[in-house]
Write a structure and sequence with these properties.
Length: 176
């Protein structure tokens, strides 16, 4: 399709970004953004909670040290970049509110699709914070550095994800 990157170009760009971030002494990951944002919001409404919060521990360091880090700006850049790419793209295809694959499997209900997407994202984020990093941190940065935790996590993601996808999107559907 015109106007879209192939997986090869995307992989090369991601690899270059990963190298730049690694050489700067950091690792590619985005969950710190969410912990920092949670810290700001929590600090605004409940200033005494931040020092005792497990959610923000190690990322905000308490109310007195809340700051915008590079990962916060990285995620902001992801949103802005996607928005600008969408608005300036020459390929203006109308995207359905519910993808065809989802509609065939679960029906055409945009609110249900959005609720599932939100809940799935929330669970992924919660699991990432509990695990000490997200897929980009563990798989992309960890595996590229040959970290055992990254390799094991990457294998676990595929070992769980492939059967789950095959089950959810098999022919015939659960609702039929």
């Amino acid at each position: 399709m015109e106007g879209k990157w192939s997986w090869v170009k995307g992989g090369i760009a991601l690899g270059i970004l990963n190298i730049i971030i690694f050489l700067s002494g950091n690792h590619l990951g985005t969950t710190t953004f969410y912990a920092q944002t949670t810290g700001y919001v929590t600090n605004f409404f409940f200033p005494d909670w931040i020092p005792a919060s497990e959610w923000t521990k190690g990322t905000c360091g308490g109310a007195e040290s809340l700051s915008v880090g590079w990962q916060w700006l990285f995620v902001l850049g992801l949103f802005l970049g996607a928005f600008l790419a969408n608005r300036t793209s020459k390929a203006k295809e109308e995207q359905p509110a519910v993808p065809v694959m989802w509609a065939e499997r679960f029906g055409h209900k945009p609110k249900v699709r959005y609720l599932h997407a939100f809940l799935g994202g929330f669970l992924l984020l919660l699991g990432s914070r509990i695990a000490g990093g997200c897929t980009s941190s563990h798989v992309i940065s960890g595996m590229s550095q040959m970290a055992l935790s990254g390799i094991v996590f990457g294998m676990a993601v595929f070992a769980a994800g492939i059967p789950a996808a095959l089950f959810l999107y098999r022919k015939g559907g659960m609702t039929q």
